[in-house]
Write a structure and sequence with these properties.
By secondary structure, this protein is mainly alpha-helical. It folds into 2 domains: about 1-160; about 165-223. The chain contains 5 helices and no strands. It has helices at about 1-15, 15-20, 25-80, 85-160, 165-220. Helix 1 (about 1-15) packs antiparallel against helix 3 and helix 3 packs antiparallel against helix 4. It starts with a helix and ends with a helix. This is Phage shock protein A.
């Protein structure tokens, strides 16, 4: 378990480029690595808890055996004072048995304490490494997302000159130019037509005045 945890740390720390080369999604892979590390930590915590429970059990048994040793010693002394040597002998024999048990239990408890300490140290190291990897994961995820965004933008910018939208805008721009040209031409023609009509109207008006003036002069004998 601890070796696998180390392997995961190595992969996260040094093989990101390899993942990218293999077209793996680094964000999903990093999340998976973190889940694997969390699972390892939970397993390590369970192992430490069991070891601590074993350590406490051995300590309790050792204390119980040692308590009986002390009790039998006191009882043997009381039996001697009471003049019951046989009872004192039996108390001492039982004391010796519990002393042997206490010795074995003490040795087992010492080993259990050592193992518990070692496991707790490794668990603390795993948790510290997990926190380091969590920070690195967040940094790598941000970098990966930024790289993907830049790549997408670069691809979009590189193709924007050939896309249909731009070509469509250019076609619409040409149509607008044509509409404007047609409008200007129409206005010119309309102006020319109006000017010609105005001149004829003026001519007709001038001719009517001239005729009336000639008739008046004839009437007055001023021709």
């Amino acid at each position: 378990m601890f070796k696998f945890f180390k392997r995961v740390k190595t992969v996260v720390g040094s093989e990101l480029n390899a993942m990218l080369d293999k077209a793996e999604d680094p964000v999903k892979m990093l999340d998976q690595f973190m889940r694997d590390m969390e699972r390892d930590i939970r397993e390590a915590e369970s192992a430490v808890a069991k070891q601590i429970a074993n350590e406490k059990m051995l300590k309790r048994k050792y204390d119980d055996a040692q308590a009986i040793v002390d009790k039998r010693q006191t009882q043997a002394e009381r039996a001697i004072e009471a003049g019951d040597e046989d009872l004192a002998r039996r108390a001492l024999e039982d004391k010796k048995n519990y002393e042997q048990q206490a010795t074995l239990l003490k040795e087992s408890w010492d080993v259990a304490v050592k193992d518990s300490t070692s496991l707790r140290t490794k668990l603390d190291e795993m948790k510290a490494e997990y926190q380091d990897m969590k920070i690195k994961k967040d940094t790598l995820k941000a970098r990966a997302e930024s790289a993907k965004t830049r790549t997408k933008m670069n691809r979009t910018m590189s193709s924007i000159g050939n896309d249909e939208a731009k070509q469509g805008f250019e076609r619409m721009e040409e149509k607008v130019f044509r509409y404007e040209a047609e409008a200007e031409t129409s206005e010119d023609l309309s102006y020319q037509t109006r000017s010609l009509d105005d001149e004829f109207d003026k001519l007709e008006k001038s001719s009517g005045v001239d005729d009336e003036l000639a008739a008046l002069k004839k009437k007055l004998g001023k021709e």
